[in-house]
Amino acid sequence: MLASKKQLWLTLEFVLLFFGIPVLIYLDRGFIHPSMIILPALLFIFILLRRNPEFRWSELIRWGISRRTLAVNGLIIIVSAALVLAYVFFFKRENLFNLPRANPWIFLAMCLFYPLFSAYGQEIIYRTFLARRYSRLLGKSWQFVLASAVTFSFVHIVYYNPVSMILTFIGGLYFARVYQQTGSVLFTSVLHGIFGIIFFGLGMGQYFWLDMPV
Q1: What's the pLDDT score for residue 34?
Q2: What gap in Å lies between CA 173 and CA 145, rounded to an integer?
């Protein structure tokens, strides 16, 4: 009885955090800028992670990535970048390199700070925290991957564009699977950061940045 009650509260917490808060921001566009929720969310999540006896802070800087894994994911990055470039070139040519052309210094700053302050934080939330906090709800490996992708995609509702949600669902499946295979949130953060730079650099950043300065 106690276990089922705890699982119910855990489910309600999951729904509130990963669906309730994004909906609240979505319904009131002037409430808060989406990027501003990452640091407060991380502080709250660190408190919850600290209470988990199975969690170790060293998980957040664990690497241990084999050369084969680096090679496979490097190839995925190259192919993905080529596909994004081809899409923008043939279908949205006016957006090609829009941010680097309009604001090269802002793009450079984004390349430096996005992987650390955005991608890394998101990966901790949607990979490490999700796996540790809700292991009782997501007992099977495919359940974690799907939940990670769905919640990661859903938070992008705050950008008011279905393209961002579709792309982040695909990315969420990929990042969650890589995290599951490697156990390295640092590695998934590097991948996330690289993909972010690719999208912003090649001309698709407007789907992930409200009022992007172009």
Answers
A1: 62
A2: 6
Distance CA 13, CA 136 (A): 13
CB of 129 within 8 A of CB of 206? no
Give 192-203 pLDDT, tens digit per residue: 999 999 999 999
pTM of the model: 0.93
Are the C-beta atoms of 89 and 202 separated by less than 8 Å? no
C-alpha distances (whole Å) from 195 to each of 89, 90, 163 are 18, 20, 15
Instruction: State the DSSP H helix or E strand holding residue 178, giving kind and residue range, or none if neither.
Output: helix 162-182
Vertex 195 angle, CA 213 and 76, to 5°: 150
Tell me which residues of the chain have a pLDDT lower than 50.
Answer: none
Furthest-apart CA atoms within the chain: distance in Å: 61
Task: Quote the CA–CA distance of 164 and 172 in Å, as a whole number.
Answer: 12
Q: SS3 sequence, the chain?
A: CHHHHHHHHHHHHHHHHHHHHHHHHHHCCCCCCHHHHHHHHHHHHHHHHHCCCCCCHHHHHCCCCCHHHHHHHHHHHHHHHHHHHHHHHHHCHHHCCHHHHHCHHHHHHHHHHHHHHHHHHHHHHHHHHHHHHCCCCCCCHHHHHHHHHHHHHHHHHHHCCHHHHHHHHHHHHHHHHHHHHHCCHHHHHHHHHHHHHHHHHHCCHHHCCCCCCC
